[in-house]
Write a sequence for this structure.
């Protein structure tokens, strides 16, 4: 799953990268410790203009039929295997897909009595685009834009950290994902192994486990045993 991540680029940088109109209204701030229900940047197709727009959404999708905003805290991830058919996500997958920009994401590996956090991030410092879904919830006084991140089975070395990972979209797939061009199986295909090889699995400090902590120190590398050298135990993700 993806339960914690970092997204620190400015609205200007993201707007330029994704060729999207900036509709964030100066709400976007660097966040090295994004947690469920936090405000996050997304790129989507504007229903009014048909062009790409950079918006701020609440992480945790609220379907139109949800009766309580608290439901969103449990809907931060949508499984690629069922996203096209699950009631909560099917309509968004069919018509409201988005890109979720990120520097990288965190997972925790439990070994014995301790948990070591890792940060998965591009070695070259580029921006990741998670496949996402969005919806507008009208159960509050003001319509609320919400989103979810699509996850898929972890591949390669990433499987040593967790059995799931965000569905990562290389830049040549951004347009198709937003437009929905192609069959669902093609849209939901994981990136090729050679693209995933560009990711670093970086051990980081345990301060990231507290959502009150923020700042670039959270993504700084710390000494840790190599993943393959650790005693064999199931990799787990833990949210604090």
């Amino acid at each position: 799953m993806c339960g914690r991540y970092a997204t620190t680029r400015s609205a200007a940088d993201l707007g330029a990268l994704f060729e999207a109109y900036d509709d964030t209204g100066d709400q976007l701030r660097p966040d090295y410790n994004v947690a469920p229900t936090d405000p996050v940047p997304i790129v989507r197709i504007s229903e009014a203009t048909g062009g790409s727009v950079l918006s701020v959404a609440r992480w945790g999708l609220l379907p139109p039929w949800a009766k309580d905003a608290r439901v969103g805290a449990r809907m931060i991830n949508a499984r690629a295997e069922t996203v096209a058919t699950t009631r909560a996500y099917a309509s968004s997958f069919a018509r409201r897909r988005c890109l979720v920009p990120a520097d990288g994401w965190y997972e925790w590996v439990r070994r014995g009595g301790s948990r070591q956090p890792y940060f998965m991030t591009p070695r070259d410092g580029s921006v990741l685009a998670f496949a996402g879904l969005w919806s507008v919830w009208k159960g509050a006084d003001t319509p609320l834009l919400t989103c979810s991140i699509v996850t898929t089975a972890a591949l390669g070395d990433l499987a040593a950290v967790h059995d799931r990972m965000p569905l990562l979209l290389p830049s040549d797939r951004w347009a198709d994902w937003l437009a929905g061009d192609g069959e669902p199986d093609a849209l939901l295909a994981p990136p090729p192994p050679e693209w995933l090889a560009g990711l670093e699995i970086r051990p980081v400090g345990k301060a990231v486990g507290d959502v009150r902590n923020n700042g670039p120190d959270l993504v700084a590398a710390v000494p840790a045993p190599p993943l393959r050298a650790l005693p064999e135990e199931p990799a787990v993700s833990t949210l604090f």
In short: The first helix runs from residue 11 to 18.
